[in-house]
Amino acid sequence: MSISLPRHILAVSATAILVSLTAGCGGGDTKAVCQDAIKAMQDYSTQAAAGGANLEGFNKANSDLAAKLKDLSDKADGDLKTTLADLSTSWGGMKIDMSDPAKAATELPKMATKATEAMQKLTTTCS
Questions:
Q1: Using 50, 70 and 90 to split pLDDT, how confident is the model at 66?
Q2: How far is residue 6's CA from residue 28's CA, in Å, rounded to a whole number?
Q3: Given this model, what pLDDT does residue 67 score?
Q4: Which of 6, 33, 79, 90 matches a 20 to 30 Å C-alpha distance to 27?
Q5: Do 107 and 99 touch, CB atoms closer than 8 A?
Q6: 103 or 85: which carries more pLDDT confidence?
Q7: Contacts of the segment 66-70: beta carbons below 8 A, 24+ positions apart
Q8: How many CB atoms sit inside 10 A of residue 33's CB?
Q9: Average pLDDT, the chain
């Protein structure tokens, strides 16, 4: 059973969505917050991909991103604030229980789907 592949899919999905975000940030403070969110996602993608099979590292990358997104949501207004708070909650909830590898293998694809949907929402909000 390979747990690395689904996590790699999650990191690749986040990176792919970043390309569309880079071109679509709005103006003013929204633009700065969107750019910071993009940077946080780039850092996360690198950190998650570098983790290999280290689930502790994956869990840490998720909690670090959740904290960064929460901080960014505190700087934002309106839909962007809501979107970043939702993303923070989503990533904060992405934790793999290392004592149950079989469950982890089924949870990672669900996390990838949830992350992709959340990132699409951020793309729309930052456009």
A1: very high
A2: 36
A3: 95
A4: 90
A5: no
A6: 85
A7: 66/90, 66/91, 66/92, 67/92, 68/40, 68/43, 69/37, 69/40
A8: 23
A9: 75
